[in-house]
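Recall from the previous lesson that a structure prediction takes nothing but the amino acid sequence as input. Here we apply that procedure to Histidinol dehydrogenase from Clostridium porci. The sequence below is the only information supplied.
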Amino acid sequence: MRIIKLDDRSMKHILTDMLKRDPNHYDEYSETVQKIVADVKQRGDEALLEYTRRFDGAELDASCIQVTQDEIHEAIKGVEPGLLEVMKRSMDNIRRYHEKQRCNSWFDSKPDGTILGQKVTALERVGVYVPGGKAAYPSSVLMNIIPAEVAGVRQIVMVTPPDREGRVNPVTLAAACLAGATKVYKAGGAQAVAALAFGTESIPKVNKIVGPGNIFVALAKKAVYGHVSIDSIAGPSEILVIADETANPRYAAADLLSQAEHDELACAILVTTSSRLAETVAREVEEFLKVLPRSEIMKKSLERYGYILVVDSMEKAIEAANSIAPEHLEILTENPFEVMTKIQNAGAIFMGEYSSEPLGDYFAGPNHILPTNGTAKFFSPLGVDDFIKKSSIIYYSREALGKAHQDIERFAESEYLTAHANSIRVRFEGQEEKQ
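The prediction returns the following tokens.
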């Protein structure tokens, strides 16, 4: 990994480099995605099944696009029992964490007859996209479905690409069943996102689409936003580690590589106050690359988006982290809690040498679907709030409105909205004469 003395110029270069990974910059794919979305919107199942044949190589029809209960039971039987138990323990942690995020409706009444409040309602139906292809991601299944279930969503519709035989990975199906998916469909890519957004003869239209995917999935979510809500436009994974001279360099190197192995666009950055630690971590990374199976992916990721940044002070390290706003932030310092209080921008913060990033990916409970590409400056992790909506409640008695009606009329007339003012005034017609 390249070691750089951080200054304003190199910081600007790194931020520019990272932004090249943003899905919004992949315009060459946008036209293709738009055509797929429009086609599925117009032709429904017919288009969806054609794209499934073309991209996934699976010959499906409307009679078998939905995963059956028999397929789910068969999948569960095929999963190693020990892994099922691990998933159940992970689910318990995820559910307990997200149950603390629940918020309730509230009402505030006053003696003059005013009642104000907020009604919290779960979304009726949400769509969950789960990547397929060569790998299975049961952890993403749990992280998407459980917050929706905790929020009270009644229908959770999952889509995931099938293999060439038209089957869904058994581990993915087992996780979906355990977490509480209502229906599972064999569909992936931009065509599946379009099906969820607009509905087809087989797949129902949803209110919101969540879940990670490749560039085509990300751009399709962007294309349908407004017709439905989405969680975010997810970019490649990233990790930033803040470390001082007390950090274990082997741990830091291992943690950087835990994200670099995702894909060639993943980003791994160490920011440290110690030049000695920087050099040791770089050597540890090279040693790990000799033995870890996905070393070719990691090498390409580190060549393009891997940095070891040396800074003069912990304040500079914190400033760099807040500028980058990483998806995952690890703090390997003598007093990680003190550093944490100064972090403004990060998707998830891991503190101490025994809180490495994969703990959050699989087991601790907080959601691993996090803002990327600097969007942690204004976005939050996926959570229960993503699956609810809020309605304002307003009730005024005649007495309460009587005290305020002249103020409202004056305000409306100042904006030349006379019908607004009249809507209030008619309720008190003749009152002045009686007085």
